[in-house]
From TrEMBL:
It holds the Pfam family Fer4. It comes from Candidatus Bilophila faecipullorum. This is ATP-binding protein. GO terms for molecular function: ATP binding; iron-sulfur cluster binding; metal ion binding. Residues 59-87, 88-117 form the 4Fe-4S ferredoxin-type domain. InterPro entries: 4Fe4S_Fe-S-bd, 4Fe4S_Fe_S_CS, CobQ/CobB/MinD/ParA_Nub-bd_dom, P-loop_NTPase. Keywords: ATP-binding, Iron, Iron-sulfur, Metal-binding, Nucleotide-binding. It comes from the Bacteria. The keyword Ribosomal protein does not apply.
Length: 294
């Protein structure tokens, strides 16, 4: 089984538009949206949810006022200032509670409950391009790296159960924990880069992360015609580091138009559709090439 992850050093580079086009073009695949903090693949693919599960991660403290002795031990030891006084009683601010459990361990009256915390939901859905595994964290919730890992496990198992040879992932942007989880076990990382100084800088960071995990890097330069100097600099850097530039895309209002219509670019009559088809063939060939060891 091959696993291709489309990533970017920052948000807004066109990563999801590219991944949606690849999803349209690829055969025998499971699609996986790993950008769980701000997912948007479902907007383009209009999924029909078949499986819906709660994502439970961590715990959240809550004080039983009837059992509380008003001793103040929880207030004194909470490092996150999550415990506050309310009249002669104490309460936990859920927006500040980090679920560390110190108050639970130290409460002499055992008056603090510590239930599991529901942080979001994850889904398995049908789309016109094939099965989609995706999720949505609730506002302000964390542990997105753990949710990304869960989604990848579900996508891999679904591909195995259905005899599909590819998991195609829309990864998280940046270089944080969700991105590390997105890249885990990948056959190829396709980095979507904008030709700007900041875009090149962010690309360097995410490419270095791929290098650390020995994941081959393919480079797709989006809006390439807006800054030919930076495009040349990105190509030069890619050549020096052994990355494959699979192509570039010009700036084109058709991208926005396809998003408004909730279509992948390859479902429209824009010239970008043929360009993306050629790029996909290069990406697919790279992903199927034997991995170099060492």
């Amino acid at each position: 089984m091959r696993e291709i992850v489309v990533i970017s050093g920052k948000g807004g580079t066109g990563k999801t538009s590219v991944c949606a086009a690849f999803s349209h073009l690829a055969a025998d695949k499971v699609i996986c949206d790993l950008d769980v903090d701000a997912p948007d693949m479902h907007i383009l693919l209009d999924p029909q949810v078949r499986v819906k599960e709660a994502f439970v991660s961590g715990n959240e403290a809550g004080i039983d006022r009837d059992a509380c002795r008003r001793c103040g031990v929880c207030l004194a030891h909470c490092r996150f200032d999550a415990v506050k006084r309310e009249g002669d009683a104490y309460a936990v601010d859920p927006l500040r509670c980090e679920g560390c459990g110190v108050c639970v361990a130290l409460c002499p009256a055992h008056a603090i409950a510590f239930p599991d915390k529901e942080c979001g939901e994850w889904y398995v859905s049908d789309t016109r391009f094939g099965p989609l595994v995706h999720a949505q964290l609730y506002p302000g919730q964390e542990n997105s790296g753990r949710l990304v890992t869960l989604l990848k496990q579900q996508a891999r198992q679904l591909a195995k159960d259905r005899g599909l040879g590819l998991v195609l992932c829309d990864g998280s942007p940046g270089v944080g924990c969700p991105v590390i989880s997105s890249l885990s076990g990948a056959s190829l990382a396709v980095t979507v880069v904008e030709p700007t100084p900041s875009g090149r800088h962010d690309f360097e960071r995410v490419a270095a992360l791929c290098d650390h995990f020995r994941i081959p890097v393919a480079v797709l330069i989006n809006k390439a015609d807006l800054n030919p100097h930076e495009e040349a600099a990105i190509r030069e850097m890619a050549a020096a580091r052994g990355y494959t530039v699979v192509g570039n895309l010009p700036f084109d209002p058709a991208v926005t138009g396809s998003m408004i219509r909730r279509k992948a670019l390859t479902e429209t009559d824009t010239p970008l559709a043929a360009t993306l088809a050629d790029i996909w063939e290069r990406v697919r060939t790279l992903a199927e090439a034997p991995r170099k060891r060492g």
